Sequence to fold (220 residues):
Amino acid sequence: MEKKASLVVLISGSGSNLLAIIDAIKNKQLNAEIKTVISNQVTAKGLDHAIRENITTHVVDHKQYPTREMFDQAMIKIIDPLKPDLVVLAGFMRILSKNFIEKYQHRLINIHPSLLPKYKGLNTHQLAIDNNDEVHGASVHYVNFELDSGPVVIQAEVPVLATDNAEALAARVLHEEHKIYPMAIQMHINGRIRFDNDQLKFDNKTLTRPLLWKNNKLTR
Ligand code: GRF
Fold:
């Protein structure tokens, strides 16, 4: 069995994606080990998932740091000695500094609840409803210097129903997030997804558009 990849997971809230990653590791869908979970919120429920699994946790409260750079530096101090193969943003609600992104470039991944490039930022589910979109979803992407703009690996698509409100739609999207995030992480780990300079390759071919997860199937 190949060496396990090491992950550091950053959270701010409920940590359901963190839990999906923990479960995928347990089910051997993910050949990885979570070295630590860092939360910027002391009350983040997601910390409980980590503690229950005996994963080391850290709270780095952004309010204690005068600048974004100093907050990021405090996280770097924890992350760097662990030499992670991948830094996983799982509902981490802080914008990262240039220095942080540069340091972990090409091994910094995020999940965003929209079909990027649509609806960067917040309130994505309400926006999809307000705009009468027929489909909505989530995107796993590598992080670059612009918010929610890095190269997208996989998108999950769900229909928007006439009866949907933002909560119902969010729940349906989240359910798919829990499938595509571990999937994308495993593809990074086993090298099916990799960077060739700044270009994303999937199975050694340039990925011109994201992989699509729809109706429980992944297509290219
Ligand atoms: C998810 O919708 C994710 O796409 C977004 O924040 C939410 C986090 O949920 N970035 P959880 O904390 O993983 O439950």
